[in-house]
Design a protein that fits this description.
The protein is built from 25 helices and no strands. It is mainly α.
């Protein structure tokens, strides 16, 4: 399957005549690689003019150390990726944050520069992917790697990663994984230690970009096996240096990563498959769904949280079919690897690269996301390219640019590729437009994700913010009411949505105070009480209740809820100050009775 590669020294013995074809092939490969990378730039060129969207605020605009520029880099090496949100999740991914800090140092808050960097990174990924496959499958002409790179560049599933600046962690991770594989293959061919060092550095950068890059180490023995290394012991020894990189990375993380209390989230909004009754069955349903959306990438949405893709039990045929498909893929992979076939390489690569997504769902019940398919989509694109070649029966052992390829099979595969790639490229360009900014994204994806509670919530919040910030009273009222309607839909989808109740309470509090409307004030009280029942370890709802009752001059209730907030958060300066002020003004100091868990009673005492 893979043509055995000669050592560089052996090729040089033939003199200039033997070296000339090698140099010509080298130039041809790079020229073709540049063409596909330029194609990738053209597809995503319209995203360069976009603004910040979605998680860009947490990663860039609201990150105090990113906005320190180069001075903030030492601190960024110690922080959780989600540090700026105040809810650390244990994600140590400093490399993308460092690139944002460098951009800020020279360009300030410039989303266009950041988008340009993402587009260039993606084009480099396409370039290195083409070089890797052309080197690994050197027994064939460039048609297979060329088709794969073109399909990968055009596939719409990548829009979230490229068009969203925050997606750079995925881009950097995958780019360095490809460099790792290319370097490992080059070291095997040339024995030059520089390639080994390059591969280890690339793997280290991949891990600094995203921890899930750890699965890349499983691809090293796979490509070495396909390049001609058969002995399991030799494969293990050649993989060992990269295991050392993993050890070094985790030692660094244990030393540098600041010791904070990591929040292990389990809410059903972001973790819709957390239930043990649904987790494993839903994981294999989603395995099947991933294949479907790669094959037919429509409709796309950035958010698949509760309840866009409802969890399913094992009695659901999609779960059973997904499990059978997975088992069949594993068995097929094992059988084909022994024969060193291209389909065996493709299937094994997909299974390896899909492992983080499958593990995230199986272990934590986490939500599905299109970004989880960025890595495994490489194998899918290889499968489509190979299928095109087999359907048309084109001779991929014939040289593309030397011996002529004007036979009917080549013409057919070219037409088939154009028919497949052009619609995908058009879909990608169109999908890029959804990522102009957060509001545009929510408006577009709300149509394709009507059953997603978080999407309805985010759209509602953005609409409310738009209303609050406008001076036009008609537009203000319309925007706020539409936003409230979106949040109500979020609650209807997920009745235990704490953040939605809290946001509704804030809006009604704003309307009640600005319009002196008792009905809206009562709605605010109801919303905050519901929020306090859902999240008893959050003090925000009680602070708001204290503010409302202070404004209504019901100081007993105000004191009670400020005390409730203080029980949850003893460092709350507002609660302390307001309790003291109420005591001075009214003489009231109504403290709830703490229960065994340390939080107070949500209901006020009798008489209030």
């Amino acid at each position: 399957m893979v043509k055995p590669k000669q050592k560089l020294g052996k090729m040089e013995k033939g003199g200039p005549k033997a070296a000339a074809p090698v140099r010509e092939k080298f130039r041809t490969n790079y020229l073709a690689g540049i063409i596909v990378s330029v194609f990738a730039v053209c597809i995503y060129f319209n995203s360069i003019i976009h603004e910040y969207a979605l998680d860009d605020s947490a990663a860039i605009t609201e990150h105090q150390y990113v906005k320190q520029g180069i001075r903030g880099i030492p601190k960024l090496m110690t922080l959780d990726f989600w540090y700026s949100t105040g809810r650390p999740l244990g994600y140590y991914r400093p490399l993308s944050l460092i690139t944002y800090a460098i951009e800020y140092q020279f360009f300030g808050l410039s989303p266009h520069i950041s988008h340009l960097v993402n587009v260039i990174l993606f084009s480099l990924i396409v370039f290195v992917l083409f070089l890797l496959l052309s080197r690994l499958f050197c027994g064939y002409n460039l048609l297979f790697p060329l088709l794969t790179a073109l399909i990968f560049a055009a596939h719409p599933i990548h829009t979230e990663i490229v068009a969203n600046i925050k997606g750079r962690d995925e881009l950097l991770s995958f780019f360095n994984i490809l460099l790792l594989l290319y370097s490992a293959l080059s070291f095997e061919e040339t024995r030059k230690k520089g390639w080994m060092v390059t591969g280890m550095i690339a793997f280290y950068f991949a891990l600094l970009s995203k921890e899930s890059a750890i699965t890349g180490i499983a691809l090293v023995p796979l490509i070495l096996y396909y390049s001609g290394v058969r002995n399991p012991g030799r494969l293990a020894m050649k993989t060992l240096p990269y295991l050392g990189v993993i050890v070094f990375f985790f030692i660094q993380k244990s030393i540098l990563y600041e010791s904070v209390k990591v929040i292990v989230e389990s809410d059903n909004v972001n973790y819709p498959y957390a239930s043990n009754l649904l987790r494993s069955s839903s994981a294999f349903m989603l395995f099947l769904h991933s294949l479907r959306i790669l094959l037919v990438p429509y409709p796309l949405t950035h958010d698949y949280s509760y309840n866009q893709l409802p969890g399913v039990p094992w009695t659901n045929p999609l779960a059973l079919l997904g499990l059978l498909t997975f088992i069949a893929a594993v068995i097929y992979s094992g059988l084909q690897i022994r024969k060193k076939t291209v389909p065996g390489f493709i299937t094994t690569t997909y299974l390896i690269l899909f492992t983080p997504a499958l593990g995230f769902i199986l272990l934590r019940g986490g939500t599905f996301a299109e970004r989880l398919l960025f890595f495994p989509s490489m194998a899918f694109c290889m499968a489509v390219a190979w299928l095109f070649i087999k359907i048309t029966r084109v001779n991929i052992r014939k040289k593309l640019f030397r011996e002529g390829t004007t036979d009917k099979a080549f013409i057919l595969v070219t037409c088939l590729t154009i028919v497949a790639i052009l619609p995908m490229a058009a879909m990608t360009v169109h999908r890029n437009n959804a990522w102009v900014d957060s509001m545009t994204l929510f408006v577009v994806d709300r149509e394709s994700g009507p059953d997603c509670a978080l999407l309805q919530y985010h759209w509602g919040c953005e609409r409310i913010n738009e209303g609050v910030n406008t001076t036009d009273p008609v537009k203000k009222n319309r925007c706020i009411l539409e936003g409230l309607n979106g949040i109500r839909k979020a609650v209807a989808i997920f009745p235990h949505f704490f953040a939605a109740y809290n946001r509704m309470g804030e809006v009604y509090e704003y309307l009640g105070s600005s319009q002196n409307n008792q009905v809206k004030t009562d709605s605010a009280i109801f919303s905050f009480l519901e929020a306090s029942k859902l999240e008893r370890d959050q003090d925000g709802s009680y602070i708001h209740l204290g503010r409302i009752y202070s404004r209504l001059q019901q100081y007993g209730l105000a004191s009670y809820y400020y005390h409730q907030a203080l029980l949850i958060n003893p460092s709350s300066e507002e609660a302390k100050a307001k309790i003291k002020l109420i005591r001075e003004v009214s003489g009231l100091d109504v403290a709830p009775v703490a229960n065994q868990t340390g939080s107070g009673n949500s209901a006020p005492p009798p008489g209030f």
